[in-house]
């Protein structure tokens, strides 16, 4: 049965969508069957894998609001082993539309459970907020990956995120774990980046991945071509780093599986 991982940080501009798209693509390249779910109203993950937004008939909005079945919303991305549940701008009104819906925080979980066994990984790209959309993702997830940009305000809001994480785990999803913390937009030339890295590693300790995603022009350019960076420039530092990150994810999963069997 697949593992559901949400990419979450309520701070914007930290590389959530970039990480979700490239994590999903690199897992697919590693022969993992992957479903990428875009639950962000900005729908940037949709264009990030080359899907034409105008071609979308149904989206995550229809699952949450119109009771559409997830099986009818999943689309092909054109990338081997990678399928998607797209988002759309109408999702921005979901917070209001879901106010009177019973068990509204469990809608995504109930849908994912129907198709979870068809995938090795379900990767969820969350919006930059801790509202009902992100809560749906956290309730449905086995774990979260937290991308953190190595800048002055890096840890701003992390305490609030972890407070929400603990509330979800205590009340709605007792099995939710922190998969790991990924340092993004890392510039080795700047002393502040190294100082921030030290602070983050003190805060999260062994949960911080060894791999750091560098500032890389190829990572920034790839979405404009509708491609994950691994397909845009496989030899770029960004592509290599995201593949190294996914290797860490898979190695961690393998260790967990060995531990459970023993």
Describe the secondary-structure layout.
Layout: E1 3-7, H1 16-29, E2 34-38, H2 44-48, H3 60-65, H4 70-73, E3 75-76, E4 82-85, H5 94-97, H6 107-115, E5 121-125, H7 132-140, E6 143-149, H8 158-171, E7 177-186, H9 191-204, E8 208-214, H10 217-221, H11 229-232, H12 237-261
Parallel strand pairs: 1-5, 1-6, 2-4, 2-5, 6-7, 7-8
Antiparallel strand pairs: 3-4
Pfam family, one: AAA_31
Domain AAA: 3-178
InterPro entries: AAA_dom, DNA_Partitioning_ATPase, P-loop_NTPase
Report on this structure.
There is one protein chain. This protein is of the alpha/beta class. It has one domain: P-loop containing nucleotide triphosphate hydrolases (Rossmann fold, 3-Layer(aba) Sandwich), CATH 3.40.50. Helix content is 43%, strand content 17%. It contains 12 helices and 8 strands. It has helices at residues 16-29, 44-48, 60-65, 70-73, 94-97, 107-115, 132-140, 158-171, 191-204, 217-221, 229-232, 237-261; strands spanning 3-7, 34-38, 75-76, 82-85, 121-125, 143-149, 177-186, 208-214. It has an 8-stranded mixed beta sheet with strand order 3-4-2-5-1-6-7-8, sandwiched between helices. Strand 6 (143-149), helix 8 (158-171) and strand 7 (177-186) form a beta-alpha-beta unit. Helix 1 packs across helix 12 and helix 6 packs parallel to helix 7. The longest helix is centred in the C-terminal third of the chain and has 25 residues, at 237-261. The protein is globular and about 50 Å long. The relative contact order is 0.18. The mean pLDDT is 93.
């Amino acid at each position: 049965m697949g593992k559901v991982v949400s990419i979450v940080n309520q701070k914007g501009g930290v590389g959530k969508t970039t990480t979700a798209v490239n994590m999903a693509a690199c897992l697919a390249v590693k022969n993992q069957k992957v479903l990428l779910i875009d639950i962000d109203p900005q729908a940037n993950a949709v264009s990030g894998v080359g899907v034409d937004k105008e071609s979308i008939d149904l989206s995550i909005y229809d699952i949450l609001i119109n009771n559409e079945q997830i099986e009818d919303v999943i689309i092909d991305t054109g990338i081997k082993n990678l399928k998607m549940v797209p988002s759309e701008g109408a999702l921005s009104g979901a917070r209001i539309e879901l106010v009177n819906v019973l068990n509204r925080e469990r809608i995504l979980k109930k849908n994912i459970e129907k198709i979870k066994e068809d995938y090795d990984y379900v990767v969820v790209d969350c919006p930059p907020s801790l509202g009902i959309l992100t809560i749906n993702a956290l309730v449905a997830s086995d774990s979260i990956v937290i991308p953190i940009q190595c800048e002055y305000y890096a840890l701003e809001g992390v305490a609030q995120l972890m407070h929400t994480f603990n509330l979800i785990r205590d009340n709605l999803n007792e099995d939710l774990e922190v998969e790991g913390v990924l340092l993004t937009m890392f510039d080795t030339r700047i002393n502040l980046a190294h100082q921030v890295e030290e602070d983050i590693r003190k805060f999260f300790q062994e949960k911080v991945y060894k791999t750091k995603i560098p500032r890389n022009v190829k990572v920034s350019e790839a979405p404009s071509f509708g491609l994950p960076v691994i397909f845009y420039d496989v030899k770029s530092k960004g592509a290599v780093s995201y593949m190294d990150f996914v290797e860490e994810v898979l190695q961690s999963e393998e260790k967990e599986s060995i531990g459970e069997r023993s």
